[in-house]
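> run fold Putative glyoxalase/dioxygenase protein
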Amino acid sequence: MNSPNLIILYVKDPAESAGFYRSLLGREPVAEAPNFIAFALDGGFTLGLWRLSKVTPQPSATGSRAEIAFMVPGENAVSTLYDDWRKRQLPIAQDLTEMDFGPTFVVLDPDGHRLRVCEPDK
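> ok
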């Protein structure tokens, strides 16, 4: 069976976005080209940053219609990460709040992609 292993975000400037994700993920890219930069993620996934003007075929819509979620285990882990990312002055789209699935918050990357932090499913 085929399993997805690459998440691609369309970005205005891959180098700018790579700086953001380099700091956020605490790791260096595994591939760098003028229009595409990739980061290896845990669990066999790769995060790709592709220059929007070079995407073929061009996307037919814009806007936030998806999120990348970081599920962080441990008591108070979500609130601890919220405090850290707030101190880094990352743009907060949703402050730390309790939802039906537990504590969560959302920050935005330089292109407005939504990054949600929450607890793993139990």
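The chain has two domains: 1-61, 63-121.
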